[in-house]
Amino acid sequence: MNMNARGWWRLLIAAVLGLVLAAGPASxxxxxxxxxxxxxxxxxxxxxxxxxxxxxxxxxxxxxxASNTLIRQIEQGAPADIFISADLDWMDYAQRxxxxxxxxxxxxxxxxxxxxxxxxxxxxxxxAPRFDLAAALKGGRLAMGNVDAxxxxxxxxxxxxxLGAWDGVKDRIAQSDNVRAALLLVSRxxxxxxxxxxxxxxxxPAVKIVGTxxxxxxxxxxxxxxxxxxxxxxxxxxxxxxxRSPAARPAFxxxxxxxxxxxxxxx
Length: 267
What we know:
The protein is α/β, with parallel strands linked by helices. The chain folds into 2 domains: about 140 residues, 3-Layer(aba) Sandwich (D-Maltodextrin-Binding Protein, domain 2), CATH 3.40.190; about 100 residues, D-Maltodextrin-Binding Protein, domain 2, CATH 3.40.190. Helices cover about 40% and strands about 20% of the residues. A 6-stranded mixed beta sheet has the order 2-1-3-10-4-11, with helices on both faces. A 5-stranded mixed beta sheet has the order 7-6-8-5-9, sandwiched between helices. Helix 2 links the parallel strand 1 and strand 2.
């Protein structure tokens, strides 16, 4: 890692630490638990955290970004207590590198990937093998999370490859740092189409779903959650348990997530 990159990470970690300290006393016993969560969880997880605060009087601080960005921050020393990834790959990475408490790991939620367009766009797309996505773009770009790192981008590329549509659009991709940034490109009309999660589309009234990708066209969209290895905050374990409880279920389902059972199955 070069000096500029090291400096960037130090600044980022310092900013996250400042967020934690602002939330309460510096000791793990006194501060609010810090949750690092995939960007696509924001609307639902904000609701769950507000509900937990009403129920318990305790607060959770949540930092949202792409799963790959979050786990790199944890790896560099950011003081997260809980990590919630938008795919299994980045949680597997965390487990291999001893960044999480593997005994607390569980699959929390499921999701779907969809094709979205601006709300007023006169377009429908039949997502099927060898569908002509390039023609549907009409010279514009397809907004996606980074296809090599961001889970939504990886799922989207896998689906397009499986359906035989990738080669036609691979030079027309507007890649973003996280799925909510891709959503924003479509919402603002800066991209005619984008691939995001079903739950992202539900969170933005300026977009509409114009097609849903078949579940067998990409790996299952699963959100695993775990305590970090370094966490000593007792409220973190309580909040993680709350996320898995019946009390949190309605907030996730309102946003379009599928709540998974203890074995990762639909419940």
